[in-house]
Amino acid sequence: MGVTDIAPGLIVRHTNRRLGELGPCEACERLVSGSISFSEFVDQVGEGHRKLLDFMMEHDLHPGRPGEVLFCIECHAEIQDRNVLRAQLEDIYSFHGQGLVAQEVG
User: Fold this and answer.
1) Rounded CA separation 88/60 (Å)
2) ∠ CA(43), CA(49), CA(54), 5° rounding?
3) Which of 28, 45, 59, 93 is the right S-S partner for 100, CB 3.0 to 4.6 Å?
4) What does the longest C-alpha to C-alpha distance in the chain come to?
5) On the CB side of 32, how many CA atoms lie within 13 Å of its CA?
6) Which of 76, 105, 104, 79 is nearest to 89 (CA)?
7) Coil, strand or helix: which one is 47?
8) What is the reported pTM?
9) pLDDT by residue (tens digit) across 38-82?
10) What are residue 10's phi and psi, to 5 degrees?
């Protein structure tokens, strides 16, 4: 794929833009909506979700699709990592203002 090719669904992993200081709720909202990259999210909230974000990048997952992320965790994550990954995903959605269960159903 060349620099000028467009790849729908490609997750932006890093940008150089300055966002200012975002609170955890707003950072989670922007991550889930796709308006900030994983790197920008870590810059805003710290390293607490790094394991999940690395897993999502490795498997080309989008945080706005929690059902897909959960499915991939169950299928591809090491057994000892699954609880941590689920907890980090749930944490993002609790800051986002909606529980993960509500997102899966709706």
Assistant:
1) 17
2) 90
3) 93
4) 41
5) 22
6) 104
7) helix
8) 0.71
9) 888 988 888 999 999 999 999 999 988 999 999 999 999 999 999
10) -65, 130
Tokens describing residue 29: 């909202």
DSSP state of 10: P
Alpha helices of 1-106 — where are they, by DSSP H?
A: 24-33, 38-45, 50-58, 66-76, 79-96, 100-105
Give the pair of three-digit tokens for residue 3.
């620099």
Q: How far apart are CA 1 and CA 95, in angstroms?
A: 36
DSSP 12-27: P-----------HHHH
Q: Whose structure tokens read 């922007």? A: 30
Q: What does the domain layout of the chain look like in residue ranges?
A: 24-105
In the Cβ-directed half-sphere of 106, how many Cα atoms lie within 13 Å?
Answer: 7
